[in-house]
Amino acid sequence: MIRSMTGFSRRERSAEFGALSWEIRSVNHRYLESFFRMPEDFRALEPDLRRLLAEKVSRGKVECSLRMDWAQPGSAGPVVDEDVLDGLAGALATVTGRLANAGPASSLDVLRWPGVVREVKRDPEPARQAALELFAEAIGGLVEVREAEGTRIAGMLDQRCRGVSGLVGEVRQRLPEVIAAQRDRLRERVAQLVADPDQERLDQELALLAQKLDVSEELDRLDSHIVEVERALGSGKPVGRRLDFLMQEFNREANTLASKSADGDVTRAAVDLKVLIEQMREQVQNVE
To answer: Mind listing the pLDDT tens digit for each residue in 59-96?
Structure first.
């Protein structure tokens, strides 16, 4: 099964600490290139996130965005430190007992005393762990989408390969007729120019003509490339670069076939081959 490099995945999760959501988008790219957008509380996770991504994805430009809505913004709120408060109350009682003119301390004054009130910071660790788990789920969803698109591409490539195979068969069947027709044409031209031609020289020219028009090797290589494409489609591994190379080889053989053509049917087949190959090449650019 092959995979496309394009896809989208979104996963969400809610818990006591708040709501998490991951969005992952991937598009074509020669290599794996990843970008992460996330709150500062989660930046420490980036090495682990990149590792998880690389385990499942080998090519593509991948953008990963994390949204975090905390249940409480910033902290769990102010908390009175009772030990500090008890100590302060004892000190105030001592001062009041010794100084006749000491005024009472207001509650606001007490709260302003350093250490009486402290902010309890939220613990981001549970949210971080949940973000890692949710990211793995989102990557799984992305892989599913890319595999589904890859299945569609594989079907298209298989269909075009069958088309290429059919054209190769037509040219192979037509080739003996083309060579025979060109030989007859050469004999007619020689007969028009020379009354008594040198038969040995004529045979040599006919052999050279047959060699020039013979595209059997090109046809065999096209058949071989078809087999390689089918093998790649069934490998279950990332094969985008290999398929891209095979498309170049397909195109090279089709160009040679067109350049050697001395027959309208063969020329038409070469043009049709190039159309099919270009259609495959465009789709192969999407394959991981």
So the answer is: 999 999 999 998 865 555 566 767 777 776 777 777 67
Mark residue 255 as left, alpha or beta (left: phi above 0; alpha: psi -120 to 50; beta: remaining).
Answer: alpha
Q: Are 211 and 262 in contact (CB under 8 A)?
A: no
Over residues 233-263, the pLDDT tens digits come to 988 888 999 999 999 999 999 998 887 776 7
Report the C-alpha gap between 230 and 224 in whole angstroms. Answer: 10
Radius of gyration of the chain (CA): 38
Pairing of strands 60-70, 18-27: antiparallel
User: Residue 8 forms beta bridges with which residues?
Assistant: 25
Task: Please answer whether residues 21 and 149 qualify as being in contact, where contact means their C-beta atoms are separated by less than 8 angstroms.
Answer: no
**CA–CA distance, 60 with 143 (Å, rounded to integer):** 12
Q: Which residue has the tokens 């930046």?
A: 43
For the entire predicted model, the pTM comes to 0.71
Mind listing the domains of the chain with CATH numbers? Answer: 7-72+131-146 (3.30.230), 78-121 (no CATH), 148-284 (1.20.140)
